[in-house]
Inverse folding.
C-alpha cells in the first residue's frame, strides 16, 4: 500500500449522478429552468475538488441526452472520472426552487436507473489504496442491493487497511422505507470513522435521539471516531478524541437564498480539511463557512467556493 503522503487522491466518492433543474418561482408554474449537474454525492466531490483536494468519483452515467454534459461538468470541477462507467437507462433528475428558502433540497425527485449499474465489481484494491478517505451516503444505498454491496465492499476494504471511511446517513424516506435505511446504516456502521448525522428529525428516526450530545455518545459507543452532528442554522456539534465542541454558524448580513444540498457542501468542505491534516474542530469551522457560502450564492455546482473564497 502507498504511504498516505503519496496517494494520488485525498477523497474517493461513490455516488449517483443527477441533472438539476433550478428556478426562482413555483416549480409547477415556471417556464424557465437553469440546468446543471447535482445530487448529494456529486456536491461532496465537487466541493472538495474546488477547494483543492484530489478527488476521484465512482459512478455510472446513462447514455441519454445528458451523458456528455455530466462528464464534461465533472471534469470541469477537477474530478477524476476514470471510474465513471457509461450505462444503459437514464440519469436521475430533480427540480428545485429558491422561492422558499426554508425548503430543503429536492422538491421533485426522480431517481435514475443508471445507478443500478454501480456494482461491487467496480471496487478493487488499488483504487481504495490510492486515496486517503472513502466517502458514500445512503442516497446510493437506496438504489439497489448491488449498490449497497458496492459501498459495503469499499468500506470494508478501507477499514481493514486503516483508510478513513466517511458516511452521511442522508435519510430520504421518499426513496425507501425507514427500516431499509436503518438496515443499510447498521450494516456499515462498524466500518465508519466519520459520520454526518443531522439533528433532530433524522437522528431521532435513525438512532432514537434528538439531542446532539446524546447522538455523539451513542455513536462513540459504537466505535465511530468522529461524529459531526449538523444542526442547520445553528452550526454543528463535533465529537472527537473524548472532546465535544459546538461550532456555531457565523452571522451574516446577506440572506441565505437556497438550502439545496447545503449539507453536502458542508461534508465536502469538512473532508477536504481532514485530508489536509486539520483536526475535526477546525475542519468543522471551514465546513460551516462553505455551507454558508453555498446558501448565500445559491445556484448550482459553479456556485460552490474555491480555495480563495474560504479561509481556514
Amino acid at each position: 500500500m502507498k504511504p498516505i503522503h503519496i496517494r494520488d487522491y485525498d477523497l474517493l466518492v461513490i455516488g449517483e449522478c443527477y441533472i438539476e433543474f433550478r428556478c426562482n418561482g413555483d416549480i409547477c408554474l415556471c417556464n424557465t429552468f437553469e440546468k446543471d449537474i447535482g445530487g448529494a454525492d456529486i456536491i461532496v466531490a465537487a466541493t472538495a475538488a474546488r477547494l483543492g483536494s484530489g478527488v476521484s468519483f465512482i459512478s455510472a452515467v446513462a447514455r441519454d441526452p445528458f451523458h456528455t454534459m455530466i462528464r464534461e461538468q465533472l471534469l470541469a470541477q477537477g474530478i477524476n472520472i476514470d471510474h465513471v462507467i457509461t450505462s444503459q437507462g437514464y440519469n436521475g433528475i430533480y427540480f428545485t426552487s429558491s422561492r422558499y428558502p426554508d425548503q430543503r433540497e429536492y422538491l421533485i425527485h426522480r431517481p435514475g436507473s443508471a445507478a443500478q449499474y454501480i456494482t461491487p465489481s467496480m471496487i478493487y484494491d488499488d483504487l481504495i489504496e490510492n486515496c486517503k478517505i472513502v466517502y458514500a451516503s445512503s442516497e446510493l444505498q437506496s438504489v439497489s442491493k448491488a449498490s449497497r454491496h458496492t459501498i459495503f465492499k469499499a468500506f470494508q476494504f478501507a477499514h481493514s487497511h486503516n483508510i478513513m471511511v466517511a458516511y452521511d446517513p442522508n435519510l430520504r424516506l421518499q426513496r425507501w422505507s425507514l427500516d431499509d435505511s436503518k438496515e443499510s446504516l447498521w450494516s456499515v456502521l462498524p466500518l465508519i470513522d466519520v459520520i454526518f448525522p443531522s439533528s433532530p428529525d433524522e437522528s431521532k428516526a435513525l438512532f432514537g435521539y434528538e439531542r446532539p450530545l446524546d447522538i455523539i455518545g451513542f455513536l462513540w459507543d459504537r466505535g465511530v471516531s468522529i461524529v459531526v452532528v449538523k444542526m442547520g442554522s445553528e452550526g454543528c456539534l463535533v465529537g472527537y478524541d473524548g472532546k465535544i465542541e459546538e461550532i456555531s454558524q457565523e452571522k451574516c448580513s446577506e440572506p441565505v437564498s437556497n438550502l439545496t444540498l447545503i449539507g453536502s457542501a458542508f461534508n465536502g468542505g469538512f473532508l477536504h480539511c481532514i485530508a489536509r491534516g486539520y483536526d475535526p474542530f477546525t475542519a468543522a469551522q471551514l465546513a460551516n463557512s462553505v455551507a454558508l457560502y453555498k446558501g448565500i450564492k445559491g445556484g448550482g455546482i459553479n456556485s460552490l467556493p474555491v480555495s480563495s473564497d474560504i479561509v481556514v
